[in-house]
Fold this protein.
Amino acid sequence: MTTDLSPSADGVDAQLARYGWDEAYARDFDTYRAHGAVPARVIAEHRGRYAVWGDDGERAAVLTGRLRHQAVRREDLPATGDWVAVDAGRGTAAIQAVLPRRGLFRRKAAGDATEAQVLAANVDVALIAAALPGDVNPRRIERYLALAWESGAVPVVVLTKADLADDVDAALRDVRSVAPGVDVAAVSAVTGMGVDALARWLKPGRTAVLLGSSGAGKSTLTNLLLGEEALRTGAVRDDGKGRHTTTHRQLVRLANGALLIDTPGMRELQLWTADAGLESAFADVEALAARCRFGDCAHDAEPGCAVRAAAESGVLDAARLESWRRLRRELAWLELRQDEAAAAAERARVRTLQRALRDHTRRKYG
């Protein structure tokens, strides 16, 4: 494949710039360039193997043993959207390091382990997909919004399969009531309704991530934006639940130069750290809390509680208030678990150092 390697007018490599590379990333990369590495962006990850895009196009990639060993946490490893340092040359690339990230989509990994799972890195816009008419769950949308705001990306709620809804305007109103300050759009891949409006958020060189549950139509929407059947899609099951069609996170470049990360459907979404994200997702509740008589008001039985008064008068939806409380409790519990896990890891590290010191002493003095 012939590749144009000529730099652009501002000194940024034109081939890399197609995938979001800019002068700030170039400055971050100077240290690695001095050691003979070249930059590339992770465009797919699947079971420990990666695909990256660099100045010579797409290459398969694997982690170096050094990077795998130095990774303290699961989230230290590369994720789709990351810029990485790889060895120069052809063939399978060896990923040596991950460049500093501009935002990170993280959730608690499924199961009992207290660790984060990275969904995407270096994202500008989060498209939160929910399928009409039956997949629009206000509580789930609130979770996605908290996740998106925490990452630093701008969230947009996209109601897909609008051609199946009897009253699209009512659906838009319902979602806007739980998404203050967030744009909400209704689209249909069948009729093309609303798809052109997405161009407002899908700009050349900017990266968007498409999130949502199984069957929300994410891959169908991605194919429509691409103008080709690049991603496999599947029908919704007879029970109305979605099928998993995307099996790994994948970054694609749209015809207009925008970048889009499609993700597998998530049946479970637990937050990881989202204090700031929760404040933004529930800006209406936070504004009421600021008017409480006491600064440490728990919004339970304290006198002068503006939050409880708003819920009792109907100004604030009681279900939304309970959702806010539930997410705050979840984050507090998770913070405790993270502290316990960090303490256990530190104890293990100290034991390892002590064991190494004893072994060294035996070898030296017998």
